[in-house]
Amino acid sequence: MATELTPQHLIEEKVYKQSHSILYYVDKKNPRGDYPKNPENDPQFFLWERGVSRWEEKNSSSTSTSTPPKEYDNIHTIENKPFLKILSPTANQTLNSALFNSSVDVFAKRGIVKVEYLIDNNLIATKNSPPFELNEEITFLNNGYHDLEVRACDDVDNCSSEKISFNLNQPISENPVSIKWESPINGLAVTSLDFPVQIRLSVQNPHNLQRADIYYEDLNGKVSGPISTFSSLAGSSYNTSWTNPPPTGTYKLYAIIHEHGGQTKKSDTSFISITNQ
């Protein structure tokens, strides 16, 4: 039977039912007394039991008629849980590189089959062989504090985990992201019938781009959008469509650029006028 250490995904609930005739539960010579200690001593017992068994076979359901187990799970135990210690980084350590290195001291009686690395509850990597070290680029993370959790498991999912925090302080990129408007060209005039309007951007150093949001703003400073958001590029350009026309007027288009490392800045603008004709 399961214990508090049995992994949840291995627990299966079963309902056990044992069907017997009334002679199993009642001594016909003393119907108000205790259960009979030896019901099989009644000459009719086995005949009545056979009838119940036949009925059970014809009306069987998903309910198990076998004998419930009496033994408890002796595989998932405290003694079998892996020993795990995060060696690096240390708690609250400041990291100045986008290359994240982590090492652990890990051992289990049944052996270790996997070590999982999670940052901010997101699985980053799984290592299946010693020394179970992690070496990964983490340019997708903003500067600041993050949670690292390492989880080690054996072949039957006895698992242990440890969690620490670290402070990421990547240097500001020497190759900042910049965005150039290719379409619509600055000063373009269109009508609502010209929508959707194609937007085409040229992006320099896209490998340092975490996310960019495209907005439009009227001459009174009212910001709307984002029209579109993109976070990764296969090349150095981005294409999308501005589908819904705003009211007539003049607007400036721009992108808010979020770089790896936490830097945020505004791109150059492109003005567009929406007219009635």
Features:
277 residues; Immunoglobulin-like; 6-stranded mixed β-sheet; 5-stranded mixed β-sheet
Question: What would your notes on this structure say?
Answer:
This protein is mainly beta. The protein has three domains: 17-58, no CATH class; 83-168, Immunoglobulins (Immunoglobulin-like, Sandwich), CATH 2.60.40; 178-275, Immunoglobulins (Immunoglobulin-like, Sandwich), CATH 2.60.40.10. 6% of the residues lie in helices and 42% in strands. It has two helices and 17 strands. The strands form four sheets. Strands 10, 12, 13, 15, 16 and 17 form a six-stranded mixed β-sheet that branches. The chain has a five-stranded mixed β-sheet with strand order 2-8-7-4-5, with no helix packed on it. The protein has a three-stranded antiparallel β-sheet with strand order 1-3-6, with no helix packed on it. A hairpin with a 4-residue loop joins β15 (249-259) and β16 (264-266). The longest helix is centred in the first third of the chain and has 14 residues, at 45-58. It is elongated. The termini are far apart. The mean pLDDT is 87.
